[in-house]
Amino acid sequence: MNKVLSERIKILEKMAEDIKLDPYPINYEVVSQETMLEVISYGLPTRARHWSYGQSYDYQKMQGEMGFSKIYEVVLNNNPSYAFLLDTNSDIANTMVAAHVIGHVHFFKNNYLFKQTDNKMVYHAAERAQRIEEYIQKYGIDAVERVMDIGFALDKHIDWHKGISRKKYPRKKKYFKDVAKDEFSDLLDPKRFV
Fold first, then answer.
1. CB 129 within 8 A of CB 47
2. Residues 1-43: pLDDT tens digits?
C-alpha cells in the first residue's frame, strides 16, 4: 500500500473514532485482480482446495472481463478484519472503499445479527484447510473431493439456524375439494395429459 493511501486510512480511522464507530482493527492489503478473484472464489484467503472454487474463479473472471461486474473490495468479518483493495483502483477510489470498509467492520462487530458469527474464521479456515490437505495426502484427491462434493450438496439443503436435534416436519394435510363438472371439464383434467 502506498504512503498516500496509508495516510488517508489513518485519517478515516480517526474520523470513524470521532463519530463513535467501533470497528475491529483492520488489516488492509492492496492486491491484484487475480488475488482478488481468488479471495472471492474461495470466500477466504486460505481454504481447502476443491474444484468448485476454480469454477467460481472462472465465472467471476469472465464477469469482470465482460464488464458485468467490478469488484472494488472484499472485507472479511474477522477480528482483526481483513480488507482487500484492488491495485487497479485509483487512490481516490481506494480511499472511498476504505471508508466503506470501516462501516462494514463496525457493523460486523456491533450488529446483533453478527454476534453469533465466527470472528476468527480466517484462522479456523486455515486450520481446516490444513486438515483437508492431510486427508488428501493420506486418501488421495479423488476420495476427498467425493466427500466434499456430498457435503457441499447437502449444505444447500440444511437450515443451520434450526440446530442439530430437531423435530420432524409436520406431515402435510391433504385437502379435497369438490369441483363442479361441466361439458369442458375433460379438457382441464391434468390426468388426461399424463
1. yes
2. 899 999 999 999 999 999 999 999 999 999 988 888 888 777 6
Residue with cell 466503506: 100
* C-alpha–C-alpha distance, residues 157 and 136, integer Å: 26
Beta pairing partners, 29: 84
Task: Read off the pLDDT band of 98 (50, 70, 90).
Answer: very high
Rg (CA), the chain: 25
Tell me which amino acid residue 73 is.
E
pLDDT, residue 39, reads 80
At 186, list the grid cell.
375433460
Contact yes or no for 40/71 (Cβ under 8 A) = yes
Q: Higher-confidence residue: 136 or 60?
A: 136
Contact 101, 83 (CB under 8 A): yes
Vertex 60 angle, CA 84 and 50, to 5°: 90
Give pLDDT, residue 138: 95
**Cβ-count burial of 134 within 10 angstroms (0-12 exposed, 13-18 middle, 19+ buried)?**
exposed
- Cα distance between residue 31 and residue 99, in whole Å: 17
Torsion of CA 22, 25, 30, 32, to 10 degrees: -100
